[in-house]
Design a protein that fits this description.
470 residues, alpha+beta, Porin, 15-stranded antiparallel beta sheet, 21 strands, globular, Oxysterol-bd_CS, OSBP_sf, cholesterol binding, lipid-binding, coiled coil
Length: 470
């Protein structure tokens, strides 16, 4: 998220750069609801039907090379490099964070379980699902402007969400979400540190994520795995997640340790996640395995160890694609799971915790967005009157990119960055400090570490003192 900045390298003028032609989508691949911005369709049950396609398809990146930009910037801090807009996707990083909520049904499951082990299993699945939307998403979200916000209320899914860009250097995004039934609170702050390794770009996660299950008086905290983009010099860009994620239940002392495995020399470990849940006495309660790009399963430790021993002995353990019938026999809640096949080596007796959502058939021409992501920048009729003037949906460079107006989007992006630079210089001249609007610096009550906490009041909709950033 640190590529865009108010400190441009000055080596690349986006507005004057030639943009490739639009990929051709047939009439059948246009907006399938027939409804564009401001015309959200209402279903018979009264629930809004969100759009299923973007107004315009993505532009081809085949004529561009990330390396052509980065080779001029070796040794520079990546947060101070401006990248051409063609490498972006038409979402702000604040909207990208909101994609945590795509699998909110897992939070609902955690709230409904009486058994703390089952709650931890659901929370672990939610933590893994939060990074699943990044699969094949090599487009870079827009770096939020200082003071930028994003809100999302989904009555059909039972939550509302607010985020704010609270710092520009370093870039820090704070968020807060709550269940409409007052059953959970989900909040945190994210400020990834970017490293350029020549052939890859690594985003090291920083910041604590907290989930509170109010009914059970429980709080869980964790940090995301490291994300790495490969082949920035030559070849097809691809993503991997790696590192150890520890999810702590601060009420019971239970802990879930998940190892997002690196690809390895021959790619055998690609996308694999493996770990376990242990109680406060460090006794293993269950083993979790799967892939963050596909699905997650759990089984008891004895079954897992027996299976692994047989595998090492050369026993015939075949990789099987798990059909819907397999899922139904192992999981009573299979109706919530989409019908997709996976490559995870299934251990008999395992319980399915989560499976990735199917993407729209035209996803490859929509920046590989999920159905949830497609709806995030939708500007429904009447929204402008109630949104904060700092909301991402009102940001002109993202809006123009979404509509396929790449030249205008590039010029607007440069204009906004210049406006941000000028505002920063003016504050420095007058010795005026920037004040955040909806979040404040504090201490995470469960980890004791520095965090950004929600100040409250956003949904009172008093936006009179919001900054003019667009």
């Amino acid at each position: 998220t640190g590529f865009d900045s108010d400190n441009s390298s000055g080596d690349f003028s986006e507005a004057n750069h030639k943009v490739p032609e639009v990929l051709d989508l047939g009439p059948h691949e246009s907006n399938r609801t027939g409804k564009h911005n401001g015309e959200t369709e209402i279903q018979e049950n009264g629930i809004k039907r969100h759009r299923t396609s973007l107004p315009a398809p993505m532009f081809s990146r085949s004529d561009f090379s990330v390396w052509s930009i980065l080779k001029k910037c070796i040794g520079l801090e990546l947060s101070k490099i401006t990248m051409p807009i063609v490498f972006n996707e038409p979402l702000s990083f604040l909207q990208r964070i909101t994609e945590y909520m795509e699998h909110i049904y897992l939070i609902n499951k955690a709230c409904s379980h009486a058994d703390p082990l089952e709650r931890m299993q659901a929370v672990a699945a939610f933590a893994v699902s939060a990074v699943a939307s990044q699969w094949e998403r090599t487009g870079k979200p827009f770096n939020p402007l200082l003071g930028e916000t994003y809100e999302l209320t989904r009555e059909d899914l039972g939550f509302r969400f607010i985020s704010e860009q609270v710092s520009h250097h370093p870039p820090i995004s704070a968020f807060y979400s709550e269940g409409l039934n007052k059953d959970f609170i989900f909040h945190g702050s994210i400020y990834p540190k970017l490293k350029f390794w020549g052939k890859s770009i690594e985003a090291e996660p920083r910041g604590t994520i907290t989930l509170e299950l109010l009914k059970h008086n429980e709080a869980y905290t964790w940090t995301n795995p490291t994300c790495c983009v490969h082949n920035v010099i030559i070849g097809k860009l691809w993503l991997e997640q790696y590192g150890v994620v520890e999810i702590v239940n601060h009420s019971t002392g239970d802990k879930c340790v998940l190892n997002f495995k690196p690809c390895g020399l021959f790619g055998k470990e690609l996308h694999r996640v493996e770990g376990y849940i242990q109680d406060k006495h460090r006794k293993k309660l269950c083993v979790i395995y799967g892939k963050w790009t596909e699905c997650l399963w759990c089984t008891d430790p004895t079954t897992y160890e027996t299976y692994k021993k047989n595998e090492k002995r050369g026993g015939e353990q075949k990789k099987k694609s798990v059909s819907e019938d397999d899922i139904k026999s192992e999981n009573d809640e299979a109706d919530d799971m989409p019908e997709v096949q996976d490559t995870v080596q299934f251990i008999p007796g395992s319980k399915l915790l989560w499976r990735i959502n199917c993407r729209p058939p035209n996803s490859s021409q929509m920046y590989n967005f999920t159905s949830f992501a497609v709806s995030l920048n939708e500007l429904e009729k009447g929204m402008e009157a109630i949104l904060a003037p700092t909301d991402c949906r009102l940001r002109p460079d993202i809006r123009n990119m979404e509509n396929g107006n790449m030249d205008v989007a590039s010029k607007e992006k440069e204009r906004l960055e210049e406006k941000q630079r000028a505002a920063r210089k003016e504050r420095a001249k007058d010795e005026v400090e920037w004040h955040t609007r909806w979040f404040h610096q504090g201490t995470n009550p469960y980890t004791g570490t520095p965090d950004w906490l929600y100040s409250g009041g956003y949904f009172d909709r008093n936006f009179s003192d919001c900054p003019d950033i667009y």
